[in-house]
Each structure stands twice: as C-alpha cells, then as structure tokens.
Design brief:
- The chain has helices spanning 17-27, 33-43, 54-62; strands at residues 47-50, 68-73, 79-82, 88-92, 94-99, 105-111.
- The protein is of the alpha+beta class.
- The longest helix is centred in the first third of the chain and has 11 residues, at 17-27.
- The chain is globular, with a radius of gyration of 14 Å.
C-alpha cells in the first residue's frame, strides 16, 4: 500500500529514483571504487556494493511493506563490502535495508555476517 506523495514508485524498475535512489547512487554496481573509497573516508564505515540491480528489486518484494530496518540473507552472492582498511570482501550474501514511512528505501547495501541492527 503506497503511503507517499504523488504516484506510486515503479517498484519493479531498479532505476526508479523514487524507490531506490540512494541505493543506485551510493551502492549500485555502477558506482566506481573511488566513490566508495571516498564514502569510506567521509563516514569511517565499510561500504557495501550490490553486484546486480535486480537484487534490490527482489529485496523490496521480500521484506515487509512497513517502515523499519531489515537484514535479508539471499543465500547466494549479491555484493561485496569495502572495509575501512582497504580490504574487499567478495561473495557477500546479506543486505541491510531501511524502509521509510512511505515505503521507499532510505538505504540498502550488502553487509557482512557480523552486521547487527542497533
């Protein structure tokens, strides 16, 4: 059920800026490693990167439709995580998703098994 303003986002379109803007711009497969390193430097946090934009559409279909913070395990590689020390962890299977009040994603990125909701 769409609770936002205007027309409902195109949930099945991975490039829908209304639904997935933050994910595509900051964690999508087209984000260059230099951009991710810049985010690491400014946030001092690891940065996850999706391998395939269709996976965030699949995540939207699986997680609950109400606001909240969720961890979803795809049980198959969906991304990588760039660590603050420069190492890269491949074959990451879990993602963190935060859904806003209107149902769109505030953020969503691959995370390591040690990532916990707080």
């Amino acid at each position: 059920m769409w609770r936002g303003k205007g027309e409902e986002p195109q949930w099945n379109n991975p490039r829908s800026t209304k639904a997935y803007d933050h994910i595509e711009r900051h964690h999508g497969p087209r984000v260059r490693i230099e951009q991710l390193r810049g985010r690491i430097a400014s946030t001092q946090n690891p940065q996850g990167q999706w391998l395939n934009e269709e996976d965030w559409v699949e995540a939207e279909q699986i997680i609950p439709k109400y606001p909240g913070r969720y961890i979803l395990d795809f049980k198959r590689p969906i991304g990588r995580v760039y660590q603050t020390d420069g190492t890269i962890i491949d074959n990451v299977t879990r993602v963190f998703i935060k859904r806003k009040d209107d149902g769109t994603f505030n953020c969503g990125y691959p995370v390591l098994d040690t990532f916990r909701l707080s």
